[in-house]
Amino acid sequence: MTALLTVMRSAVTEVRAKPAALVGAAGIMFVNDVVWVLFWTLFFDEVGTIRQWDRDRILLLLSIVTAAAGIALGVFANARQVGRMAIDGELDAALALPVPTLAYVLVRRIEPINVGDLGFGICLFLVAGDPTPTRALTYVAVVLCSAVLITSFLVLTGSVAFFVGRAEGGELGMQAIILFASYPSDIFAGAAKVLLYGVVPAVFVSAVPTRIVEDPTVADVLLFVGVTVAFALAAWAAFTRGLRRYTSGSVWTRA
Q1: Beta-carbon count within 10 A of 18 CB
Q2: Burial of residue 27 (number of CB atoms within 10 Å: 0-12, 13-18, 19+)
Q3: d(CA 161, CA 158)
Q4: How far is CA 95 from CA 105, 160, 240, in A?
Q5: Cα–Cα nearest to 179, from 153, 202, 156, 201
Q6: Alpha-carbon torsion 147, 137, 118, 52, what sign?
Q7: pLDDT tens string 20-32
Q8: Separation between Cα atoms, residue 143 and residue 212, nearest integer Å
Q9: 215-220, long-range: CB < 8 A, 24+ apart
Q10: Measured CA angle at 240 (ends 114, 164), to 5 deg
């Protein structure tokens, strides 16, 4: 843990070394998120309620999704790069270190533009999430779990590259889970709903955490935690097994 914390401090130092770039990149994402919120606000002001989803509920969902994505794509930025790094042979430096390879890769780099998502999600919850001490603690807990779930899914899809030799899985997985998680799950039906629950765990990134913040039940909490743990274990197993097939590219980078 001491070594990993040192790596994280190094990643933070690199980002802080260029404050203007950090503020500019985070600001761009912040503005992008504002546009998304305006769209849903205007939509629900026009149509009212759709299958128990209204403006307040969708804003709570967006606050969870953006904050969780900010952690997964900003703080653990390399999660979406696992496939590319495996194909390009860029894991050599990580393999040479006396720390868990996957943990090192995840904390090695911070993506400033996605840090804006984290800040936006927190601000949106404070403004529109009806914060109380209990709801705030619940919000923090579900955001952290959702971030772990997104990160695990990206590592899992990225690790496919070890076996098939193609690096698109991580990027496609990122697009799928963020896109589907940004919509109310109840608007989907049939095969799309099977996809949301069984293949891309988008519903557990947004809709289930939203229910937990609004009206927590033991069943929802256990299901949410269980799915998160299952994907985390699957991601670790896929990456670890994939490393046995990894071929050095003789590219000595800092991962």
Answers
A1: 12
A2: middle
A3: 6
A4: 10, 19, 12
A5: 202
A6: positive
A7: 666 666 677 777 7
A8: 11
A9: 216/138
A10: 80
At residue 53, φ and ψ (nearest 5 deg) are: -100, 130
99-116 per-residue burial string, b: 16 or more CB within 10 A, e: under 16: bebbbbbbbbbbbbbbbb
Is residue 252 predicted with pLDDT exceeding 60? no
Residue 106 CA to residue 102 CA, distance in Å, equals 6
The tokens describing 118, both together, are 């984290």
The tokens describing 120, both together, are 């936006």
Helix, strand, or coil (residue 50): strand
Interacting residues of 117 by C-beta distance below 8 A, sequence separation 6+: 29, 33, 66, 67, 69, 70, 73, 74
User: Which residue in 223, 197, 200 sits closest to 145, CA to CA?
Assistant: 223
**Cα dihedral 41→114→196→184 (10° resolution):** -10
Instruction: Write the pLDDT tens digit of every residue in 59-101.
Output: 999 999 999 999 998 888 888 888 888 887 778 777 877 888 8
- Phi/psi at 15 (5° precision): -70, -40
